[in-house]
Amino acid sequence: MKILKKTLFYLLAIVVALQFLVPLVWMILSSFKIDEVIYRDARTIFAIIPKFSDLSLKSYVELLGFYNIFGNLLNSLIYASITVVFGLTINSLAGYALARFEFPFKDWILIIIIALMIVPIEATILPLFLVVNEMGLINTVLGYLIPFLVNVMNIFLFRQHFLSFPGELIESAKIDGLGEIGCFFRIVVPSSLNMYVTVGILTFLASWNDFLWPVMALSNADLMPIQVALNAVFSDKYNIFTSHIMAALTIVTIPIVILYIVFQKYIVEGSMRSGIK
Amino acid sequence: MGNLSLKRFVKVRNPHAQRYKRSEVTTAFGFLTPAMMLSLLFIVLPIILAFTYAFTDYYLLKPHAKQFIGMNNFTRMLTDEVLRTSFFNTLQFVLLVVPLQLSMALGLALIVNKKIKGNSFFRAAYFSPAVLSLVVISILWTVMLNPTSGLINQMLANFGLQKQPFLTSPSQAMLSIIFISAWSGCGYQMMIFLAGLKNIDPSLYEAADIDGANTMHKFLYVTLPALKPITMFLVITTTIQAFKLIVQPMVMTGGGPDYSTITLLQYIYEYGFRHRNIGYASAITLVFTVFLVVVSIGIKKLFKEEAA
User: Fold this and answer.
1) Choosing among B38, B44, B116, which should be mutated to test the A contact, i.e. which has the most A CBs within 10 A?
2) A217: Cα within 13 Å, side-chain hemisphere
3) What is the DSSP secondary-structure string of A195-252?
4) In this complex, do B143 and A245 lie within 8 Å of one another by their Cβ atoms?
5) What SS3 state is found at A194?
6) pLDDT tens digits for A1-39?
7) Percentage of chain A with pLDDT > 90?
8) pLDDT of B253-271, one tens digit each?
9) Contact A128, B47 (CB under 8 A)
């Protein structure tokens, strides 16, 4: 009885797992086939089980001949890295000031930040486009990146984190002759690395996955981040076969899989804290 | 996430600490300046602009012909058929995807919470779609749901079932998007439910055992009540997220066929960005934003009342 129950449970777990894995396995396998083979195999088990004689790198070679995918990939990597570095600095400085110092209008600033957290960014994206347009920064990297460096949710998360930071550590560092800025970068940041990595990874993923804002802010193909370029490949009805699309999807997914494997713990922890996704 | 109850976060000031140290004030504002400048420019200003443009007929290509037209944009919304369709499409998406996705997530969490061999493999497998970006998911599924040659139709044929039009049919397109969104999003929420399950005090289950409770009873009277705070958090975040649906219909269907998948945010995007009709799009933006804020406060109230 117990063995039967256990077997049934495993069967359920495996069937459910297949639901999630089959599309991904099919995507990766198809990227190594030519279209005739993809559609020949679609009704057989070879759609998701590799038959090595059928696999080749042909679609990758062709895709990279048509499109500068690696260029777009590099764009995304640069954009996301800049957003992480400057975003973390700006938001954590603000969060730290709100947690540690006493100054006029502090409560008001805090209330405004909390109020802005409720306003969905997507809803204001159209007027944001107008602001950037007025500044003459549409279709420039600067205009694309600057608006999303500041993130009120992250300011708030940092503020909550720094509230419990031991003040004695800072006081003793001051006695040793460090100024406020020195204290922040030499004492506070190094001892809050966990927090920085968590927020940093989430910022990186949000930037990497963003689609709507780059569609509006960047129309130059050379500047496009990978998500927009991917959609352009997909919309190309003349040159592109299914195998090319699958190769593009696979290339785009690999860096993120690596990121998830390395930073798994931080991502789950961070999304629980901020409720993203 | 009680970010609405301001009092919890704002300290009541000690009246003796009213005098600020000058050096401290200077440093504080120095630290705050970059964030304040950027938020004023890119968050506060757009909100103010949306407010003012909503009452004008601002057309981006003729910026100088902008005129104040009072409530015209708002009365126009009442008779706009496509806007009504986008609203009901969005509502349909929210009402179906939230329960579907969350119950899938809870089911998955219950499976991987069992102490069996290989449960870390199952956890990784169930989580795997969450790694993909929305654009990747949308493209992959559009190819798989192709009405003639797609993988899903080929598999259906193997079971002797008829081919389905999926995204090309007005009656199936939104349902397909709902399923795909739940499929790709539930892994995240599984992890959060799982953390909640691990936090339940085992002695509660022991006590239930002593009282002779069966598995179903334990789930209904121990597990579910213990997960209530997490469920509330997930319902709120998923609902708000769902109201902002745009990438999937943009990539998969372009809002079609026959406006069957166009969403509110997409409609704003089409009007404001594609057709450059800023005035009308700003009015919709305004109503949409207020609506979202009211919804999130409403859900919180609802849960609080039930808890009381």
Assistant:
1) B38
2) 25
3) HHHHHHHHHHHHHHH--HHHHHH---TTT--HHHHHHHHHH-TTT--HHHHHHHHHHH
4) yes
5) helix
6) 688 888 898 999 999 999 999 999 999 988 898 877 778
7) 42
8) 988 788 999 999 999 988 8
9) no
